[in-house]
Amino acid sequence: MPRFYCPTPLSAGLALDLPAGAARHVQVLRLQPGDPVTLFNGKADAAGQYGEYTATVTHMGRSSVSVSVGDFTATQRETTRRVQLAVGMPANDRMDWLVEKAAELGVSSIQPLMTERSVLRLSGERADKKVAHWQSVAVAACEQCGGNRVPLIHPVTTLAAWLKAQPAALADDEARLLLSLRHGTLPVRTAAASLPATASITFLSGPEGGFSPAEEDAAQSTGFAPVTLGPRVLRAETAALAALVSWVE
What we know:
- The structure is a single chain.
- The longest helix has 22 residues, at 124-145.
- By secondary structure, this protein is of the alpha/beta class.
- 30% of the residues lie in helices and 27% in strands.
- The radius of gyration is 20 Å and the shape is elongated.
- Strands 6, 7, 8, 9, 10, 11, 12 and 13 form an eight-stranded parallel β-sheet that branches.
- The chain folds into two domains: 3-74, CATH 2.40.240.20; 82-245, Alpha/beta knot (3-Layer(aba) Sandwich), CATH 3.40.1280.10.
- The relative contact order is 0.16.
């Protein structure tokens, strides 16, 4: 059954017009009145449960689609850990691919960063448009994979500014991990074994060419522990996703 993200309050028996993005998708699929769909809004219900609603198409206009919302089903498809990804943006369409796959894997949020070695540099309106595009990529990924919480794509910023904004002290159930190729770095799976199953993890992953030594030093001074994915040098987008795979359940 087609799934659509509908970022508005939902409840059984509600009649509503779908937002523009979902409506266009329904029209592309050539659904008709009476056809069933599934809706989710990424928010918990009154009982604090996440899930999705059945719905039925009731009207197809030239640019609008109306539905009648049915029953709610509490459905948990998210990871047990809250995993955040801060990443030096890879260039071209690789960032799109990274956002899509990270959303499928259940990442909680993605922080796009500009670093010393970043090829992709964004600011102003261009940055805002890219973030909006990546947010739509994350929505589409969740519609496809069954996720009921869409990861937030934060505004683009520099690594230095982002590190400066991090709280000085880590909580007991929080970990900050820096993907690094430095000798003597702890394997990421070893680091995983020492943390609670419900720990909140932030991964910091570099762009093409990795972080500079000064940037790695700055990250470590902000509480990021260096970890390694192994002896091979992975592409920027591959390294970030490999790190996520090692933590999601």
